[in-house]
Specification:
Blueprint: E1 3-7, H1 12-27, E2 32-39, H2 41-44, H3 50-72, E3 80-86, H4 89-99, E4 104-108, H5 122-130, E5 135-138
Parallel strand pairs: 1-2, 1-4, 2-3, 4-5
């Protein structure tokens, strides 16, 4: 195993997935980890003013990046890369994983939104259906 893409939205489910990713980092000393946070602008485009969404997303991105680099994966800083993209979450996750030639995609089973908490979660379900690569969904 050489490369993992771990998609996070800062939710509890994503935090549980990070624990699994730590096991992979310990098991494979050459493993490169790409931590991906996707801003789904279409989800909020009609409900909120653009400036408010930009402010919220900038803050959320910085908080997640800081937590990833300084807390969760601080022992592996040299092998962890943070990526922030804008787009449809599940298809963007699959695209980044393909671009990075990932061996595995890791996602939490449920995201932060109400609809993401239904059954499996819309983003995790979308990644499972779109991905050409193996996907690990962590509960």
């Amino acid at each position: 195993m050489k490369t993992i893409v771990y998609a996070t939205d800062g939710s509890k489910s994503a935090e549980h997935a990070s624990e699994m990713v730590k096991d992979y980092l310990e098991a494979w000393p050459e493993l490169e980890l790409y931590v991906l946070y996707v801003t789904d602008r279409e989800k909020y485009a009609y409900d909120y003013a653009s400036d408010a969404v930009d402010h919220y997303e900038a803050r959320a991105t910085n908080e997640i990046k800081e937590r990833i680099e300084n807390n969760i994966f601080s022992d592996w800083k040299d092998r962890v890369h943070f990526i922030h993209k804008t787009g449809h979450a599940s298809s963007t996750i699959c695209e980044v994983a393909k671009d990075e030639q990932a061996d595995l995609i890791v996602v939490g089973s449920h995201g932060r939104g109400f609809f993401d908490r239904a059954l499996l979660g819309s983003v995790a379900h979308g990644v499972l259906n779109r991905s050409e690569l193996p996907v690990l969904v962590v509960r």
